[in-house]
Design brief:
Blueprint lengths: L1 E3 L14 E3 L5 H14 L3 E6 L1 H9 L1 H8 L3 E4 L2 H9 L9 H14 L4 E5 L2 H14 L5 E5 L10 H12 L4 E5 L4 H10 L6 E4 L3 H5 L8 H5 L3 H8 L1 H30 L2
Parallel strand pairs: 1-2, 3-4, 3-8, 5-6, 5-7, 7-8
Helix pairs in contact: 1-5, 2-3, 2-12, 3-8, 4-12, 11-12
């Protein structure tokens, strides 16, 4: 699996079936496009590409297939941003947790009903209350906490999709973790064509104050990963080692794209 270093592309090249693309280069372009989707009642699916996803995409064909069905992919993680710049296809850092507030604000302004799906009921209730307090006009009409072992393409998923359709949900934040949230987004998009699905990982936990995000200064120096690893080393140390291991391959890929882009 490689990253197709073509910012703003509408998807991987036909002759590169194993590649993924960052399709949205900036926050302005994302918000303009999402506003158009809301205005027209068109659904979408948004994934946020980071190194952990790159590792998983290489080993999980179903995850890769689901990712390639997403209408929007942003860069979530400074390594993706730096490598894209190296390839002369610059993109902005648009992490899932950082997209919640602007999307919630837009949904409130355009009177788009919102759903929260994932995590625990306690977290969802707290996050819904906080979001509605922070964003006037926002209506969180559904909070769904799936059970352990939830199948993102099973009968229970179908029942959740029915609830989304019945409630007229235009924006659904998915907090299930990768790859489950992306699998659900790709599956649900075919059955809820008026709903936009945004995968945000632990984003709702931060809003509900169930987890503490890295301090702003650590995010500014691109050290949020270090904060997360220090807070949960048993779970994350191996993950980050795997992420570091793919960097040489991605560096070579970006350099190859840089040379090709220089001749465009």
């Amino acid at each position: 699996m490689q990253i197709e270093w073509v910012a703003g592309s509408q998807g991987p090249a036909p002759d590169a079936p194993e590649n993924v693309v960052v399709t949205v280069p900036t926050m302005d372009s994302l918000m303009t496009d999402i506003a158009a989707h809301f205005e027209q009642g068109r659904g979408f699916s948004l994934a946020t590409l980071n190194l952990d996803h790159v590792v998983k995409l290489a080993d999980d064909a179903a995850f890769l297939d689901a990712y390639r069905k997403h209408s929007h992919v942003t860069a979530d993680g400074n390594p993706i941003v730096w490598l894209s710049k190296l390839a002369r296809r610059p993109v902005s850092l648009l992490a899932g947790a950082d997209l919640i507030a602007p999307l919630a604000q837009l949904a409130g302004k355009m009177d788009v009903p919102v759903a929260l799906l994932g995590s625990t009921q306690d977290t969802l209730d707290a996050a819904a209350s906080a979001l509605q307090d922070r964003h006037p006009g926002l209506r969180v009409v559904l909070c769904i906490a799936p059970p352990m072992g939830f199948d993102p393409e099973g009968a229970l998923a179908d029942s959740y999709i029915t609830q989304l359709n019945d409630a007229g949900v235009g924006l659904c934040f998915l907090a299930l973790g990768a790859p489950k949230q992306e699998l659900l987004a790709a599956y649900a998009s075919t059955k809820a064509p008026k709903t936009g699905f945004v995968s945000i990982g632990a984003g709702l936990d931060f809003i509900a104050a169930k987890q503490t995000r890295a301090p702003a200064f650590m995010r500014m120096i691109a050290a949020e990963w270090l904060w997360r690893m220090m807070t949960n080393p048993k779970r994350l140390a191996a993950r980050y080692m795997a992420c570091f291991a793919v960097l040489p391959r991605l560096f070579r890929s970006a350099m190859k794209a840089r040379r090709a882009n220089a001749s465009d």
